[in-house]
Amino acid sequence: MTALSASSVLLEELSRRAPDGVWSAPGRVNLIGEHTDYNDGFVLPFAIEHRTYAAVALNGTGELRVRSTFADETVVVAVDDLDDLFPTPTGATPRVPEWAAYVLGVAWALREARPDATTPGADIAIASDVPVGAGLSSSAAIEGAVASALNDLWALDLDRVALAQVGRRAENDAVGAPTGIMDQMASMLGRPDAATLLDCRSLETRSVSTGFSDADLELVVVDTQIKHAHSTGGYRDRREACERAARLLGVPALRDLSIDDLPQAAELLDDVTFRRVRHVVTENQRVLDTVDALTQRGPRAIAGLLQASHASMRDDFEISVPELDMAVELTMTHGAVGARMTGGGFGGAAIALVGNGQLSAVSDALRRGFASAGFKEPAIFTVSPSEGARRDR
Ligand code: GLA
């Protein structure tokens, strides 16, 4: 059964009637620009064909009743009680199961964005084919699907950028993951033919054609099966280090530094903090250089930038893991044009730009290499730029 049908079937079980509609939003890969979003910098993601579906029906009560294929439970909360549940205090876990915090957090953040609106009860059923914990933004996909559904059914009239901000608010303040806005913007604004250059300070966007298929290239995802969570651990540490460095260097955000500022930063900061800064500053430049290379010379010209990005994350930002490094090395030695880890790191997926017809040789090499290193078998599949959030039915 497709995830679209699964969401409808689940809703019918919950509500004993057909949904008022089904909405969906995609996961994403990030071509380049990692840990730059919360530093007010640049990113270049695109939405992928894997999507999360929300089948929704207004239920004539004052309650939200939420189900998903992830868990065998129905979570019920009065709409007026959302303000008691959220925001989740910093460092605490949400008072509802985490999968439900994404859904209910979006409902809460929508009400915060439109406090004047009438927000009646609804039944919401979620099903997804975005791999969870793979660094492909399964969470932004849930947020985008639910935000789009309630925006329509509650007649809120928020635009796509406002809905992305609602998704981020849910992620930050309801789930408690201190992420930036890249994933929600990619999921809301995706286009079937292009990546999105996003300025995370102004939220201005520009579509950038990838040109992969014209150049006979495919983008391969290697999901290492190492799960990560951004609400705890390394992601939060990296973000705090960046904010501390910006304060020490006297700038609003690391976005405000250029490569020419690095020698002075090296004098003022300890070695680890300096390397965190160097990653962000050089990565911002690599995003802009990637856009220039793609538009002027085509996708084969971005190889060196992808490699440099991975090395910077591995050595300066220290967010890679051996499985991701192996995925990058093996795809490169088996003919990939370029490869890097994608997403927040500490697990998740790598991407590799591979010539048409080379996928099976690359996959075999990856499976063999991972097995002989004693790693889990990776999931390997191709993705291409896809449409952002939409109403499906
Ligand atoms: C995660 C976060 C994003 C971004 C990336 C790293 O995907 O959700 O906001 O910070 O990590 O680039």
Describe this protein's structure.
With 393 residues, this protein is α+β, with helices and mostly antiparallel strands. The protein folds into two domains: 3-206, Ribosomal Protein S5, domain 2; 209-383, GHMP kinase, C-terminal domain (Alpha-Beta Plaits, 2-Layer Sandwich). The chain is built from twelve helices and 13 strands. The strands form three sheets. It has a six-stranded mixed beta sheet with strand order 5-4-6-3-1-13. It has a four-stranded antiparallel beta sheet with strand order 10-11-9-12. A three-stranded antiparallel beta sheet has the order 2-7-8, sandwiched between helices. Strand 7 and strand 8 (205-209) form a beta hairpin. The longest helix is centred in the C-terminal third of the chain and has 27 residues, at 271-297. The model has no long low-confidence stretch (mean pLDDT 97). The structure holds alpha-D-galactopyranose. Residues 30, 34-35, 37-38, 137, 179-180, 182-183, 230, 343-344 line the site of alpha-D-galactopyranose.
Provide a compact summary of the structure.
41% of the residues lie in helices and 21% in strands. It is built from 12 helices and 13 strands.
**Count of DSSP strands:** 13
- Count of separate structural domains: 2
Q: Describe the strand arrangement of the main beta sheet, using strand numbers.
A: 5-4-6-3-1-13
Share in β-strands:
15-25%
CATH top level of the largest domain is Alpha Beta
> Terminal Cα separation, in Å?
16 Å
Mean of residue pLDDT?
97
Task: Point out poorly predicted stretches.
Answer: none
Supply the CATH architecture of the largest domain: 2-Layer Sandwich
Helix/sheet category: alpha+beta
Topology order in helix (H) and strand (E) letters: HEEEEEHHEHHHEEEHHHHHEEHEE
Based on CA atoms alone, the radius of gyration comes out at 21 Å
Level of helix content? Answer: 40-55%
Shape: globular
Number of helices: 12
Hetero ligands = alpha-D-galactopyranose
- Main sheet makeup: 6 strands, mixed
